[in-house]
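Record type: monomer structure entry
Structure origin: computed from sequence
Chain ID: A
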Amino acid sequence: MLIVGLTGASGSGKGYLCSLLADKDICIIDTDKVYHKMISSPSPCVEALASAFGPEIIDADGGVDRTKLGAIVFSSEEKLKLLNSVAHRFIRSKCDEIIRNTDARIVILDAPVLFESGFDAMCDVTVGVVAREDIRVDRIMRRDGISRDRALARVNNQHSDDWFEANCDIIVENSSGEITEIAEKLKKELMRLYGSKEEK
């Protein structure tokens, strides 16, 4: 099995790229979706978060009220770090479980904070998806229905292309719009790496 960490800033198109890569040989694990599902109803993760941030973050269904939790953690860098330290432990455990139970030859961990979470340590290879700033801004505006100023502020608050190029093994440039062709090229490269790993 080849475990691939895939990351990229908002608007880079990594989510859509992942949807094109998924097939019988490639299992996609969206770490954001894993987390959101985990906190939508009572769970050990919800209990740990309530212990860290107080019972007022629990909603009527026994899950986490993300608005209340967000108001707490995004006002303090220290509390945001605490959230990540609690959540990432449970996310990684669930990802490990999914990996153990899949028959796919390649597993792609779609993780916006791949390196910050330490999830890169699970991976055989890391892929960074990048795109021109103006394209990312337009994508964010369309996707989230927000103003250009808010989209630009979000882009400016994230890692640059240079950062991804310095930290990732493979860089995918996704500004051209030829996403299907990009996905096919990446899939071929990942299958080549899988074959090389299996030969060792």
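Annotation 1: The mean pLDDT is 92.
Annotation 2: The longest helix spans residues 77-100.
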